[in-house]
Amino acid sequence: MINNPFWWSADEKYFNNCLAIKLGVPVPNTVLLPSKERPDDTGDQSFRNLKMPLDWQYMFDKIKFPAYMKPHSGGGWKSVYRVDNPDDLWHKHNETGQLVMMLQEEIIFTDYYRCYCIGGKYVQIMAYEPRNPHHLRYATQPKTQGEAHKKLMALITDYVLKLNHALGYDFNTVEFAIRDGIPYAIDFCNPAPDADVNSVGQENFEWVVENAANFAIEKAKSQVFGQNNCTWGTFISNSSMQTAETPKVKKTETIKKPKK
User: Fold this and answer.
1) Is it the case that residue 254 has pLDDT exceeding 50?
2) Is 217 helix (H, G, I), strand (E, B) or coil?
3) CATH number of 29-38+51-106, picked from 3.30.1490.20, 3.40.50.1400, 3.30.559.10, 3.30.70.270
4) Helix, strand, coil shares of the chain as percentages rounded to 5?
5) What is the rounded distance in angstroms from the CA atom of residue 31 to the CA atom of residue 62?
6) What's phi and psi for 179, nearest 5 deg?
7) Where are the alpha helices (DSSP H) in the chain?
């Protein structure tokens, strides 16, 4: 099985950002916003742990405008908004219903890359322009050149592997926006990424087919029947090991006094 369906169903973008920070991978400043409408099956006491009123000014000062607002879970560029000021945010937030949204700093980038990662070891870094029409997003060239470009590619490869090892995805893409030479991870929860030859181009398509086939063969050969053969990321596996190693608290025995 390629891509653990149990982890995929639990994963979401805000957690991804928190994990990236723990791994030392730069991400845009991000805050989580409450949903505009109260979710179904909740009551007026369900969110009593939230501090009210929320410190919106703190959030705005941290993120600054313009910014991007997008669902904490999901993909396909659905319900993604660019917001220019607080009034614009209120107006667009009114359209989001029960979606829990993230407000994220805008990274003004000089270069942008989309990276395939297969099997936690095969990495393909592709220059990408998200502002172009869909069929032209891969028709771009990086502005960084020479030795700086080589160092940047090595750093991006390191970040791609760190993120995918921690998340445990067998097949995923990671996107980076480059600002002042620093790659900021923008989106790295894409376990069913676009690989259409008409959008990614012939060279990238052939790379995906070749390496996906090689990894699928490796995965099939390593299958052990009767065991859980899903890939679990280091975040889960390390956490479970720590839980297993936690010493049990011994019960205090009460010493009874002998009867006279």
Assistant:
1) no
2) helix
3) 3.30.1490.20
4) 35, 20, 45
5) 9
6) -125, 125
7) 5-10, 13-23, 56-63, 86-93, 146-167, 197-200, 202-221, 234-245
pLDDT digits (tens, 9 = 90+) for 145-192: 999 999 999 999 999 999 999 999 999 999 999 999 999 999 998 888
* Rg of the chain, C-alpha, whole Å: 23
Domain boundaries, the chain: 29-38+51-106, 111-221
Do residues 67 and 80 lie in contact, with contact meaning Cβ atoms separated by under 8 Å? no
**What's the distance, CA 1 to chain centroid?**
21
- Three-state secondary-structure class, residue 8: helix
CATH architecture classification, 111-221: 2-Layer Sandwich (3.30)
Please identify which residue in the block is written with the tokens 């639990």. Answer: 10
Residue 153 burial class via C-beta count within 10 angstroms: exposed 0-12, middle 13-18, buried 19 and up: middle
